[in-house]
Design goal:
This protein is α+β, with helices and mostly antiparallel strands. Helices cover about 20% and strands about 25% of the residues.
Length: about 140
């Protein structure tokens, strides 16, 4: 989108130094940016990313949604092993410097998924984005 289109749609764009490509943060998402010194736990960024994914997988399981991983792609997915059906419910983009983590995750709850039509989320083409609301067929209490 051009700067004019962004302004007309009330969208702000920010360049950051986090992992991944482009993502969207908006209303009705749960966004978490943990800042941790991994040297106090383990010096393995892959393990950290898998732990973030597992936290989201366990969270959406509380809503009856089976999440998982997509080989070679960070984030939490639904039906990741079914071509044409795979959809991302949580994006994860982390930067780590001297084992201090920055940035984090964005899980779609009752998110307006239309915003994703204007980007290629995380640089991954031909895959869908979803939300807890879309998967359940109804909005959930965001304040819970």
């Amino acid at each position: 989108m051009s700067d004019e289109e962004l302004a007309a749609n009330g969208i702000a764009f920010f360049n950051t130094n986090r992992g991944g490509d482009i993502t969207f943060h908006g209303l009705q998402q749960v966004v978490g940016y943990p800042i941790l010194d991994l040297e106090k736990y383990y010096t393995d960024i892959g393990k950290y990313l898998r732990n973030l994914e597992e936290m989201i997988i366990l969270t959406i399981a509380e809503y009856g949604i089976k999440g998982g991983r997509s080989k070679g792609e960070t984030g939490v997915w639904i039906d990741a092993d079914i071509p044409g059906k795979e959809r991302k419910i949580c994006a994860i983009g982390v930067r780590c410097s001297r084992w201090i983590t920055m940035h984090g995750f964005a899980m779609n709850v009752n998110t307006d998924l239309g915003y994703f039509n204007n980007i290629i989320p995380c640089g991954i083409e031909n895959k869908q984005v979803t939300s807890i609301e879309k998967e359940l067929g109804h909005a959930v209490d965001y304040k819970q």
